[in-house]
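tool=predict chain=A
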Amino acid sequence: MSRYPVIPIILCGGTGSRLWPISRESYPKQYLKINSEDNLTLLQRTFKRISNIPELKDPILVCNEEHRFIAAEQMRQIDIIPQSILLEPFGKNTAPAITLAAITAIKNEEDPILLVLSSDHYIEDEANFEKVIKNGIDYAKKDRLVTFGVSPTKPETGYGYIKSAMPFKTKQIEGIKIDEFIEKPDIDNAKKFLEDKRFLWNSGIFAFKANILINEIKNFSKDIFETCNTALLNSEKDLDFKRINNEDFAKCPNISLDVAVMEKTNLGTVLNLDVGWSDIGNWNSLWEISKKDIHGNSFEGKTYLKNVNNCLLRSENRLIVGVDLNDLVIIETRDAILVANKKSSQKIKQVVNDLSNENFPESKLNKKTYRPWGNYVSLVESNTWQVKRIEIKPGESISLQKHKKRSEHWVVVKGIANVEIDNKISTININESIFVSKGTKHRLSNHGDENLIIVEVQIGDYLGEDDIIRFDDLYGRK
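tool=predict ok
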């Protein structure tokens, strides 16, 4: 056993509203592939960039119920099996999430170093990032609570700041005692902070011994430790997931680790993370880190541009044609189109809130829905009929189920389908179909070694996903 094993704690929360419409509450940005040249999602890249850290163990993920299968599948795709995936019933900020992970970590290792990472950050210089993180781990081994700040490149009012006791020296990796934390400043103070080498943006990345952190939480925020510990004791194991007890966790304060511990402790140390960091907090920040053409345009998908400058365009399905445009964001998805001035990117979150308040389903839901067996996309829909594209991974099956209010017609377009209908088993090949009448028990399985894709036509008085009666399910769903 290593003296100081390093356990990554990857925080996967977030509502996904700031990069709407490609990011939604049902599928936030950490699960997206932001860089077209890199086939990894932000979550996958978060783990990959630390994979050379000495004594690194499998991670602990903290996410919510809705995203559990997405997170697990994306880890599986990079051959990682998390030690645990903790499911918060609702978000309570970073202090409770990290406390849950710390208590879990010390059950697996005697005195591990925890490396706390957000799952949705972008790092340009990953080699230097690794150097700074290793240096921070060395300070953590000396019982310091380490956080990492970022040298400001502009007077930013959207970030919190960390003030160190002394100015940082250029290109020198060193830990300096924390003087204070500052909440998001006004523009005048942000301009002053830009000139003062003691001020860094707060990245939300940490390194510390689990036992040292837990002791400080007990000292300064005992109620957080007690409620999290009780919620874990009363949690339920569900396949690869641990469901945190709802009733116990509801009593936990909604508070960040900075406020709960870091602002109060004498053990705080900050390192300068000068590595091209971004939290990709809006469309303008994504444009800033994106590869651009000679006219300053970042584009992806089907686009045709004439006299277009400094724009960000992304097409998922249809052709975008731009003429005589400047400084715009144009995002096309299957069910929504965003057109906005890049300078107004910070307003998108409020717009999404407004859409939600007015009951627009597009504010939260993505047309592509993920399940443990694969995914489905709603292609066309009406009140009494709907067409879906269903994709099932090799070796997986939907639950044995029936519907009271709809029938289904399945057409195989790729792979071989194994179909069970009222205890009768059939094999359906490409360009063959089968009808599932209303009220019959049925299951669709993929016994092959490639993804199975079918087109499903639903017809009925009600087409909601809650019209499912499950009799047997590989994934423990009811």
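Residues 6-278 form a domain with the Spore Coat Polysaccharide Biosynthesis Protein SpsA; Chain A fold (CATH 3.90.550.10). Residues 60 and 84 are 5 Å apart (CA to CA).
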